[in-house]
Every structure is written in C-alpha cells, then in structure tokens.
Amino acid sequence: MRMRLAMVLSIAILISSYATRALAHGEAADEPFLKDLTVAYYDVHVTPTQVKVGDPVTITGSVKILETWPYTLDPPQTAYITPVVPGPCFALTERLINGESSPGSIFVDKGGIYQFKMVMLARNPGHWHVHPGIAIQGTGTLLGPGEWVTVDPSGQPFKLDVTLLNGKTVDLEHFGGAFVWWWSLAGFIIGLIWMLYWTVPKRTVTRLAVTMQLPVNDDAPDIGLITPRDHMWMDLLAGITVLMLIVGWVYMAAKYPVRLPQQTVRFAPDPISPGDGLIAVHPKGSTFDEKTDTLVINFQVKNNGASPVSLKQYIMAMTTFVDGDKQEMAAAGPSEYVGQLAVDPDGPIAPGASRDITLKMTNEVFLQERLIPLHDPQQLIAGLLRFQDAQGKENLVTLKSVLVPTEFQPQYLP
Q1: Segment 254-279, tens digit of pLDDT
Q2: What contacts 117, CB < 8 A, 6 or more positions away?
Q3: Which of 334, 311, 318, 326 is nearest to 383 (CA)?
C-alpha cells in the first residue's frame, strides 16, 4: 500500500513539475465577447521573421474600435498601442499612429480606425511570438494576430544608442545600470536584515498562537517579544534608510543639475474614414457548427453608392477571412489567423441594388482562440465587412449578429 502511494505521489509530482513552452499570450483565455465586440485587426504584418540581434522588426496594420463596444465595459477613451512580446526580447524604437509619432497613449473613440507602425530592435536570441495589441483604459489589452520571429545571435552585444537633448549619445542598454544595480542591492539588504531580524531570533512569527493573544499596542517585553533593544536596532535601520535617501537625492542633484519633468504626449490621431457610408447592411442571424468548425452568417446588403461593390473580406477580432486566391490571403496577415471566405452569391453588387448574402467560414481558429460564444448569456458576434469597388475604394461596415450553435444541447445540473 505504501509503495503504491509513493508511486502515485511521484507521478503527481512529475506531472506537476512538467512545463511546456507557452505558445501564446493568454488571449485564448479572454471571453468571446471581449474579442468579437470590441476591436477588429486587419492588414497586420510582422516583418521580417528571421533576424539577428540588433536588427529591426516592423509591425504594421490597422485596428478599428467597433461601434458594437459592449455596454458592460467602460467606454473607450484612452488607449496605448504596443507590441506584445514575451518579455524584454525586443526594444521599441519607433511608433506611428495614423502617420503621427506616438510615444505614449492616445485618445480614441468608438468607430475609430488606427493605423499603426511599430519598429523594434531584436534584443535576445530565441523564437518569439509577436503580436500587436491595444491596451484600453478600463478594459485591458486586446491582442491582434501574432507571428513567430526567430532571433539569431549576431556575435555582438546588443546596443541601443540614443542621443540626449544635450547632444550626448548613450547606450540605453547599459546606461546607469551599475548605479541602479548597487542601489537596489543596498535597499534589498536593509529589507532582508529587517525581515530576518523579526522572523529568525524573535517569536513574533514563530509563536503566532502567543502573539495573537496580545493587545495591539502591547510590546510584551516581559516575554521577550519586543524589547528596548529591538527599538534601538529598528531606529538604526530607519536612520540608515533615511540617510540612504538623502545621499541619493544629493547625488542626483549634483550629477544631473539640469532635469526635465517626465513628459506626457497624449493626443487624438487624425481620423481615418471607413468609407463613404453608402453601404447598408441588415443582419439575419448566424449559426456555428461546433463539429465542423463552420460559421455561417446571413445578412442583407444594399449598395447606395454610384459604383458596383464586391465583398472581399470578413474581419473578426484578430482573424481575417478572404474571398480570393492564395496571394490575397497571404497579404491579409499571418497565415494562422487568415482563412477562406465563401460568399453566396458572389460577385459585384450594382448601385441601388439589394442582395441577401450568406458567408461561410470553416476554420479551427474559432475554437482555438475562443471566438465563438457557445455558452454565454449573450450569444453575439461582430465583425467588419470589407467592400471594394472597381477603382479599389474601400468601405468598412460593422455587422453585429445573433449567433445560434447548431449542435446546441441543453446541459442540466445534477
């Protein structure tokens, strides 16, 4: 019996200690409504995907904050568009939003389109998964499609040279690193002495059954809990801490006599039009077959413009489905997040004409990324319909639809 128990415990410890490599950034843990009804990414590209340490990697694309933003979330007002990478394996050097340099957060609105370009330098060798993300205040970071980037060693240490306002060029990778390291160590040692003093020789922690019985303001010197000698040592530690802060302040004032307050650059980027607004859509419901990973969306579209238009793409969260050939699909974004779109009936929609359209998409990404609200209180999905006329002019139209799982089976509590 003991041998069996030992074997079971050994297997449990072995399983619990085994860790596989993380292949994503937790986006699959987000609820479907947090992806489908909030933002939509399109034309996202991460290039190149094979670099050496010190080489640039560029992320480009667009994100639209949908008009279907859930009422349960705070309205989007302030956002920060950023690369999402596994730790400090890249260094961001440039960020443009709608063509403007954006070192910090920006003001955003529902329905707004934000084209981004972010340039990073590869910092650490490895195989890294790179996403664009938009962090919206009150909601969190919503991720776009990701791409694997392989960073090979270059034989040279990573450098990040930056020219300061005084004309001096410094390497941010090592600038002030020694001072920060020793300063942090000094603070850590003070804290470590304080912790060990009260947990090793003293009975404040090891005899909680006794100390919990004492009044709040009772030092209990009669049982050796807190003695006048303890007060002396704590006063000494507090004095060292204050002295350390004073020395640091004097050192900073002497070494850096010219200082600027931390700057805040926050603005609303110039708006980008989603089109002339002459295409109207009316949802007619959608279904999802969990067994075949097939999403079907029905809607009616009316072309109120002066030129025929064709439906080219359906964009949902970080995924894009394309009605086109392999070349058009490759141009739509990372292959893991691009799928084939079947449009029935296909072809241009004449000016003034109305048409009932059915979209059909079959892809494992729906369940892998938890895009489909199978068991949610509100089974709604939303995405962008991307129309294009013969001259290449585009219209982006948001479509919100009620979803019904075709293989729905009621689940009853026991």
Answers
A1: 988 888 888 788 889 999 888 888 89
A2: 58, 59, 60, 94, 95, 96
A3: 318
Query: In angstroms, rounded to a whole number, what is the distance separating the alpha carbons of residues 60 and 231?
Result: 60
Q: Are strands 78-84 and 126-136 parallel, antiparallel or unpaired?
A: antiparallel
Residue with tokens 């413009």: 305
Q: Which CATH architecture has domain 24-157?
A: Sandwich (2.60)
Total residues belonging to the chain:
414
CATH topology of domain 279-405: Immunoglobulin-like (2.60.40)
**C-beta separation of 357 from 344 below 8 A:** yes
Place of tokens 């999905």: 381
How far is 195 from 277, CA to CA, in rounded Å? 65
Q: Which amino acid is at 262?
A: Q
C-alpha span between 111 and 176 (Å, rounded): 43
| Token duo for residue 125 | 């060798």
Rounded CA separation 94/160 (Å): 13
Model confidence over 119-171: pLDDT tens digits? 999 999 999 999 999 999 999 999 999 999 999 999 889 999 999 888 889 99
Between the CA of residue 380 and those of 160, 296, 374, what are the distances in Å?
A: 46, 13, 10
> Do the Cβ atoms of 283 and 267 come closer than 8 Å?
no
| Cα dist from 151 to 54, 91, 106, 331, whole Å | 9, 13, 31, 23
Q: Chain-centre distance of CA 371, in angstroms?
A: 16
